[in-house]
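Deliverable D2.4 — example input (structure tokens):
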């Protein structure tokens, strides 16, 4: 700070956003995501983790990815390159798990099953649409443990489309200890369980035909 007499290196608050009532009503991550949208400029928004970063060569492809936002496309996802796979056996397992889900599974979910939703990083959003249609995630306590997938539910229920790109990837560091990997898998399992009792799931079942529902639950 440049204030006279202030300690060197002290942080100073420049701006605050005043929220009504209790500021944190739901889960921390989706609350922060939806709150951060107002600080993002431009027409598109990319959701990234703290342990994630892009490569210079891959970032040059972002213009080509934005060309996919045509018609009713609201989200475009792509795979991750796990940079922590050489840090041990558990890290290699976590990286292999992410590779399979982020490539083969999502590719097949996108086409021909048409059930690919939103799984957080490194998806790119139509920010203008997200601002007027409920944000990029839902944040209710206990129910929205897997907060990102509810963003995908919201897109589908509002008539939007979710696409998947093969020509670009983004760097990502995954968990490298057994306890951390086990905790993440437990969180995913719990999130899938509570998702089935949500209103979004019921509305999606009513809005979808039997051919889409079968691969969705698979």
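Example output (designed residues):
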């Amino acid at each position: 700070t440049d204030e006279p007499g202030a300690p060197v290196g002290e942080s100073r608050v420049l701006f605050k956003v005043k929220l009504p009532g209790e500021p944190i009503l739901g889960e921390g991550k989706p609350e922060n995501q939806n709150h951060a949208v107002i600080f993002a400029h431009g027409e598109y928004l990319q959701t990234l983790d703290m342990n994630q970063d892009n490569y210079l060569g891959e970032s040059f492809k972002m213009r080509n990815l934005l060309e996919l936002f045509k018609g009713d496309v609201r989200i475009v996802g792509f795979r991750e390159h796990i940079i922590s796979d050489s840090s041990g056996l558990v890290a290699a397992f976590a990286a292999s798990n992410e590779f399979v889900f982020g490539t083969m599974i999502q590719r097949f979910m996108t086409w021909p099953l048409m059930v690919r939703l939103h799984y957080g990083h490194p998806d790119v959003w139509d920010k203008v649409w997200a601002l007027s249609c409920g944000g990029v995630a839902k944040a209710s306590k206990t129910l929205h443990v897997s907060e990102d997938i509810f963003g995908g539910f919201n897109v589908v229920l509002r008539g939007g489309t979710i696409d998947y790109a093969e020509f670009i990837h983004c760097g990502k560091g995954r968990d490298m200890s057994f306890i951390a990997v086990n905790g993440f898998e437990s969180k995913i399992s719990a999130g899938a369980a509570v998702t089935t009792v949500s209103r979004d799931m019921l509305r999606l079942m009513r809005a979808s035909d039997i051919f889409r529902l079968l691969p969705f639950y698979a």
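The CA atoms of residues 44 and 126 lie 5 Å apart.
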